């Protein structure tokens, strides 16, 4: 495998949206950011047009050669450009258990620290997604306590987020 990150292209949505096999998994991926299921390539590109500006928010696609195998976003959550917030993390479900999720997260973290100058990468992950939590922990993310728990209404339930962060290790 020759895995690299590149900027998201609108044609990537044709592949990425096929990984959203059911509404439960889709909501774990995007919470309430998309109004309906199934999410179409047009929906994804419309969201990008509205919410991903290439400055305060970017979308990256992980490819193996030419094949799209992963997708992730990074955004500045507030007025502090030293923090980047990771979101919409997904890999090709037909290639699970090959370390793609961990590779995608590692590459995005390296990009955030190395190319974008972040000193902290944060994320929120639903507590009902233990596989994702284990993946983030394996990369070095640690759970942090927030005063208010972020939660979303998904599929008639309230889903709570686990807040996680990874601080850049300064070389000595």
Mean pLDDT: 95
Sum up the overall morphology in one term.
Answer: globular
Biggest sheet descriptor: 8 strands, mixed
* Global Rg: 15 Å
Number of helices: 5
Distance between the termini: 33 Å
Q: What's the total number of strands?
A: 8
Task: Describe the fold and architecture.
By secondary structure, the chain is of the alpha+beta class. The chain is built from 5 helices and 8 strands; from the N terminus they run βαααβββαβαβββ. Strands 1, 2, 3, 4, 5, 6, 7 and 8 form an 8-stranded mixed β-sheet that branches. It starts with a strand and ends in a 5-residue tail after the last strand. The mean pLDDT is 95.
Which properties best describe this structure?
single chain; 172 residues; alpha+beta; 8-stranded mixed beta sheet
In short:
The protein is α+β, with helices and mostly antiparallel strands and 172 residues long. Helix content is 28%, strand content 33%.
Could you outline the blueprint of secondary structure elements for this entry?
Blueprint: E1 3-7, H1 13-16, H2 23-30, H3 41-51, E2 57-64, E3 67-75, E4 83-91, H4 100-114, E5 120-126, H5 130-139, E6 142-144, E7 151-154, E8 157-167
Helix pairs in contact: 4-5
């Amino acid at each position: 495998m020759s895995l690299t990150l590149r900027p998201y292209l609108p044609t990537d949505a044709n592949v990425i949206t096929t990984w959203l096999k059911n509404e439960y998994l889709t909501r774990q991926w995007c919470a309430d950011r998309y109004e309906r299921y199934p999410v179409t390539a047009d929906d994804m590109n419309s969201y990008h047009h509205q919410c991903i500006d290439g400055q305060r928010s970017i979308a990256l696609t992980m490819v193996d050669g030419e094949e799209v195998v992963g997708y992730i976003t990074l955004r500045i959550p507030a007025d502090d450009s030293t923090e980047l917030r990771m979101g919409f993390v997904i890999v090709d479900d037909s290639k699970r258990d090959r370390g793609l999720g961990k590779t995608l997260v590692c590459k995005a973290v390296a990009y955030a620290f190395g190319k974008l100058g972040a000193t902290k990468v944060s994320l929120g992950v639903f507590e009902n997604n233990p596989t994702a939590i284990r993946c983030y922990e394996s990369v070095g993310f640690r759970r942090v306590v927030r005063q208010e728990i972020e939660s979303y209404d998904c599929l008639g339930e309230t889903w709570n987020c686990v807040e996680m962060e990874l601080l850049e290790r300064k070389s000595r």
